[in-house]
TrEMBL record:
It comes from the Bacteria. This is DUF5658 domain-containing protein. The keyword Membrane applies. Keywords: Membrane, Transmembrane, Transmembrane helix. Residues 15-101 form the DUF5658 domain. Pfam families: DUF5658.
């Protein structure tokens, strides 16, 4: 009986795509409301809609990795890299939530 394929990186990659999309939505909302400013120097000169479009495109690219052999990689380096990226994005999302909630309180 063939051994089933495991996908150890599927959840971290999927989580990163979702966190990036949530970051894009909160950034768009915060920029429109004037509650935040874009801190990324590559995106700071763009309109809120363009910033959201870039982040949406990045989320789609990240989600595309779910259909590549990368998700079956058992590399600890990739796991730690994705874990670190998810923690960083989680912190950024927490900041966005705090800033937007302070703006509306």
């Amino acid at each position: 009986m063939p051994k089933p394929l495991t996908t150890p990186l599927k959840k971290p990659i999927g989580a990163l795509a979702i966190l990036n999309l949530a970051d894009g939505l909160l950034t768009y909302w915060g920029l429109l409301a004037g509650a935040i400013e874009e801190a990324n120097p590559l995106l700071s000169g763009l309109s809120p809609l363009a910033v959201f479009a870039v982040k949406l495109l990045l989320s789609v690219c990240l989600a595309a990795f779910l259909f590549t052999p990368l998700v079956r990689s058992k590399s600890l380096a990739w796991r730690y890299f994705l874990l670190t990226a998810n923690i960083v994005y989680g912190g950024i999302l927490l900041l966005h939530i705090i800033w937007v909630s302070f703006y509306y309180l």
